[in-house]
Amino acid sequence: MTEWGVHWNFYATIYVVNLILVLLQDWLQYSLPFAVAVMIAYEFSIVSLGLKDYVFYGPRNDFVSANREGIVSSFGYLAICLIGIEFGRMIFQALFEKIEKQENAQKEIRLFKKMTL
Questions:
Q1: pLDDT 10s per residue in the chain (117 long)?
Q2: CA gyration radius for the chain?
Q3: Can you state the angle between helices 10-23 and 68-116, rounded to 10 degrees?
Q4: Tell me, what DSSP letter sits at residue 34?
Q5: d(Cα 58, Cα 65) in Å, to the nearest integer?
Q6: Which of 37, 70, 80, 91 has the fewest CB atoms nearer than 10 Å to its CB?
Q7: How far apart are CA 54 and CA 31, in angstroms?
Q8: CA–CA separation, 75 vs 35, rounded Å?
Q9: What pLDDT sits at residue 105?
Q10: How far is CA 6 from the centre of its chain?
Q11: Distance between CA 59 and CA 37 in Å, rounded?
Q12: Residue 1 has what DSSP assignment?
């Protein structure tokens, strides 16, 4: 109960993160700035706004307060997912550029062979 809450579990967190990603899908090209903004807001709210005390010591009166650990942690998982999207994009672009360079080199070789024959 102290890890996720009364009714919350990891699958609920994954669902919430995916739901937010669906809502943000038109702006996912800015996933790294979004991730940084979420991390800064998350850390600021935990340290400066007293969210840490609420998560650790708050009462369990309603659905949100009964599941506060899972709900609050969803923002951290969202930031991790957005960073993963950015790294995936960088890796894909690097691989695509490498394949594109190889294809261009093969085209140039074929053109050179046609010109020399």
A1: 677 888 999 999 999 999 999 999 999 999 999 999 999 999 999 999 999 999 999 899 999 999 999 999 999 999 999 999 999 999 888 888 877 777 877 887 887 777 776
A2: 23
A3: 50
A4: H
A5: 7
A6: 91
A7: 29
A8: 10
A9: 77
A10: 25
A11: 29
A12: -
Residue 103: the pLDDT is: 80
* Dihedral class, residue 15 (left if φ above 0, else alpha if ψ from -120 to 50, else beta): alpha
Q: Residues 6 or more apart from 78 whose CB is under 8 A from it?
A: 16, 17, 20, 21, 38
Which tokens go with 15? 């669902």
Phi and psi dihedrals of 47, rounded to 5? -80, -50
Q: Name the one residue in this structure whose structure tokens are 């695509």.
A: 96
Q: How many helices (H) and strands (E) does the chain have?
A: 5, 0
The C-alpha angle 83, 87, 93, rounded to 5 degrees, equals 145
Closest C-alpha among 69, 62, 65, 55 to residue 12: 69
Q: Which H, E and C letters describe 3-33, residue by residue?
A: CCCCCCCHHHHHHHHHHHHHHCHHHHHHHHH
Q: Which region, left, alpha or beta, applies to residue 8 given φ > 0 means left and ψ of -120 to 50 means alpha?
A: beta
